[in-house]
Amino acid sequence: MFVIQVIDENGACCKKELPLYSGRFSDEDMWKLLKEYLEALNVRGAKTVQVLADGAPWIWNKIEPLLIELGVPKEKIVLCLDYYHASQYVHKIAEALPESISREQRAKKLVLFKKWLWEGNCGKIVTACSRLIKHKTEDVQRWLNYLEKHENKTQYAEYERNKLKSGSGIIESGINSTLSN
After folding, report:
1. Which of 27, 52, 94, 118 sits a CA distance of 20 to 30 A from 112?
2. Of 38, 92, 97, residue with least CA distance to 63
3. What are the per-10-residue average pLDDT scores of the chain (181 residues)?
């Protein structure tokens, strides 16, 4: 499923362009339909094109080339990892800290890790956890790799300053309404 939402210069939903919700069964159909919608909206004329998604490689591997093909200059494309997905990993990492770290210390580390995440400093989280967690499970290593891999897409404070979004709540709402019908 994907959602196309037009945002005005104040970061509010544009009343002239309703969000477009769409879902397809095949990967090929979904990309074709997305391309058609973006062409109809004249995406190449947008001031900024923000892509907000979870960490699925199939999205990140295809979306930027598609936008460039549609005439969007690379410098106008903003790729953003959904903050809520990223913060779930940070919570899991904090829970996986060694038992020698008290509950109170874990809570403080979690606050610090979330601050670093918001600032786009996932590398600090990875470095700190590499020192704190000597024997990483496969899951912990996967969570750290996820943050490290997507660090360039976690500049949430900058997104907020530029009146861009940092969460994909609109698509989660679309998925929930689709499932309830």
Report:
1. 52
2. 38
3. 65 62 70 87 91 86 95 95 93 94 95 97 96 94 95 95 78 43 42
Residue 181 lies in a domain: no
* Residues 161, 157: Cα–Cα separation, whole Å: 6
Could you give the CA distance from residue 32 to residue 39 in angstroms, rounded to a whole number?
11
* Locus of tokens 């996932």: 122
Domain total in the chain: 2
Contact status, residue 134 vs residue 107, Cβ threshold 8 Å:
no
Q: What residues make up the domain containing 17?
A: 2-82+162-172
Q: Please check whether residue 177 lies inside any domain of the structure.
A: no
Distance CA 97, CA 93 (A): 7
Domain match, 56 and 104 both: no
Helix (H) or strand (E) holding 50: strand 49-53
Q: Quote the CA–CA distance of 103 and 91 in Å, as a whole number.
A: 13
Regarding whether 88 and 45 lie in a shared domain, the answer is: no
The residue type at 171? I
Same domain, 96 and 8: no
Cβ atoms < 10 Å from Cβ of 51: 17
If asked whether residues 58 and 128 sit together in one domain, one would say no
In a domain, 29, yes or no: yes
Integer Cα distance of 129 and 96 in angstroms: 10
How high is the pLDDT of residue 23? 62
